[in-house]
Design brief:
Alpha/beta knot, seven-stranded parallel sheet, elongated, tRNA (guanine(18)-2'-O)-methyltransferase activity, tRNA binding, methyltransferase, S-adenosyl-L-methionine, tRNA-binding
Length: 220
């Protein structure tokens, strides 16, 4: 449960414009879709995918770090790491099992000819969209356990896009369709309160000192 008094205390430190911005952004946040990236060798691509998630309203990004243990490129992410939840996994199996247990269908993004085109994709089901490595694409385990496949329609000679570009195109298309649908895609009231608290903490300098003072004065 969220400590509403503590939330009110922190938000009282913020400007009215900041609080209004939080509420406006949260109106467009969703967990109906979640994004997963698998062992992305060039970490700036993961950072760029995170930025697309933030811009288009995807609240969670799942990062599989089975082979490459790299950190987020903060310059590329442009602060998106403060507003998007990053879930990291040390194995593909763990990521797949976790997302399936949350009720997501696993959707592999691939350029294969028989895959579902983006405009034909059924947006009604909660979906985890997987994007693979620059060199090898998605692993066989993900392809075998996928509930569906998705591709971007292309009409040129080149058969693939950079992962950050393809993710941006798919995320923008699907979230735009979602917001124009009758699907219940919004965050729950509890999730909104959780994000308000987390974002308030991310916005306040010297938050540790302020927290210590608050709980010393208010916790008996």
């Amino acid at each position: 449960m969220i400590d509403l008094e503590y939330l009110a205390f922190l938000e009282n430190i913020l400007t009215d414009n900041r609080k209004e911005k939080f509420l406006k952004v949260l109106e467009n946040r969703t967990k109906h879709f979640t994004i997963a990236v698998e062992d992305i060798f060039q970490m700036h691509n993961t950072s760029a995918v995170m930025r697309s998630c933030e811009i288009f309203g995807i609240q969670e990004l799942n990062v599989i770090e089975q082979r490459y243990g790299k950190s987020i490129d903060k310059e590329i992410a442009m602060g998106a790491q403060k507003w998007v939840d990053i879930n990291t996994f040390d194995s593909i199996t763990n990521c797949l099992d976790t997302l399936k247990s949350k009720g997501y269908q696993i959707i592999a993004t691939t350029p294969h000819e028989n895959d579902c085109l983006m405009e034909d994709f059924d947006i009604s089901k909660p979906s985890a969209l997987f994007f693979g490595t620059e060199r090898d694409g998605l692993s066989e385990e993900i392809l075998q356990r996928a509930d569906g496949f998705l591709k971007i329609p292309m009409v040129g000679f080149t058969e693939s896009l950079n992962i950050s570009v393809s993710a941006a195109i798919i995320i923008q298309n699907l979230t735009n369709r979602l917001r124009n649908s009758n699907i219940d895609w919004h965050l729950s009231n509890e999730e909104i309160l959780e994000k308000r608290l987390a974002w308030a903490k991310n916005s306040i300098k010297d938050i540790k000192r302020i927290e210590e003072r608050y709980f010393a004065e208010n916790v008996k």
